[in-house]
Write a structure and sequence with these properties.
globular; alpha/beta; 6-stranded mixed β-sheet; Purple Acid Phosphatase, chain A, domain 2; disordered C terminus; 301 residues
């Protein structure tokens, strides 16, 4: 009886792994989220396509076809990790070309863009990030990636701050490099024009509390893969960042800010599976914040 139970559990586990490798990791979806956070002045609506953790391998076509099918947005933001391997630079640049925003196209880099991937023991993800030992890494082709993206009209935001206008909406825009590998320069975050609508873009959400404290209304981040593996009734097992598992993805309020934290569209080259955590592109529909009702006068005539 015990042997049969062990065999049944092993068979179920194999089926789950096979499902995660063959089906779910390629079961792309678009998630639409409405956020009523725009100021009363400026446009009534602004759409933002949020892509993250694409993790392209060379010649990957199915994911590229999904990207080409996405609706056009006013702004497109890619929060890092275009690549699963350096050989995929041209593939990823060609694939995201179809997603460029009508008004603006922005990106930051992630660690997988900067360095070639290496096999990793999955148990390492259960070690707190600050306690992990650094590993030697081979530099990737990120300069070529940046050059090709910028030639296509994308704007790199790593550790920058600027003022722009989006269809009549004054915006103070900040971008942070990957905090997961200690490259985020928080000195760019303090706001100079807080009357503008504040948007902060980052790869790892580790920098989100600081951005919220500086008064940015919208934060856009990725990196977590939504946990990549979730269990029914349990949820994500790890986040690979400072956030707790219950905040692994979705719309998260941090103080006065709202953060869009994407589950991403890809996986590591050496962990090509997802479970209970479909790959996603996020379309944010930003609309004007509701106004409080006008106070009625109690004065009698």
């Amino acid at each position: 009886m015990l042997i049969r139970l062990v065999i049944a559990i092993a068979a179920l586990g194999a089926l789950c792994v096979g499902y995660g490798v063959v089906i779910e990791r390629r079961w792309y979806r678009i998630v639409r989220r409405r956020l009523d956070i725009l100021p009363t002045t400026g446009p009534e609506q602004l759409t933002v396509l949020h892509l993250s953790d694409l993790h392209f391998v060379d010649g990957e076509r199915r994911k590229a076809r999904f990207l080409a099918s996405l609706p056009e947005a006013d702004v497109t933001v890619v929060t890092g990790d275009f690549l699963a391997e350096p050989e995929a630079v041209e593939t990823s640049v060609t694939a995201v070309r179809a997603t460029r925003g009508r008004l603006a196209s922005w990106f930051v880099l992630g660690s997988n863009d900067l360095y070639a991937p290496r096999p990793l023991n999955p148990l390492r993800y259960f070690i707190p990030h600050g306690s992990r030992r650094a590993r030697l890494a081979q530099p990737g082709r990120w300069p070529e990636l940046v050059e090709l993206l910028e030639a296509d009209g994308w704007h790199r935001l790593d550790n920058t701050r600027r003022e722009i206008d989006l269809d009549g909406l004054p915006v103070e825009l900040a971008g942070l490099h990957d905090a997961h590998i200690w490259r985020a320069d928080l000195r760019v975050l303090p706001r100079r024009e807080p009357e503008r609508f504040g948007i902060a873009v980052m790869h790892s959400p580790n920098s989100a509390p600081e951005a919220a404290a500086c008064g940015y209304e919208l934060l856009i981040a990725g990196h977590t893969h939504g946990g990549q593996v979730r269990l029914p009734l349990v949820g994500a097992l790890v986040t690979n960042c400072a956030l707790p598992p219950r905040l692994v993805s979705g719309v998260i309020r941090i103080g006065g800010a709202v953060m869009s934290l994407s589950q991403g569209l890809g996986t590591s080259k050496y962990a090509p599976f997802r479970f209970w955590c479909r790959p996603e592109a996020v379309l944010l529909e930003l609309r004007r914040a509701p106004q409080p009702p006008t106070a009625r006068s109690n004065t009698r005539s």
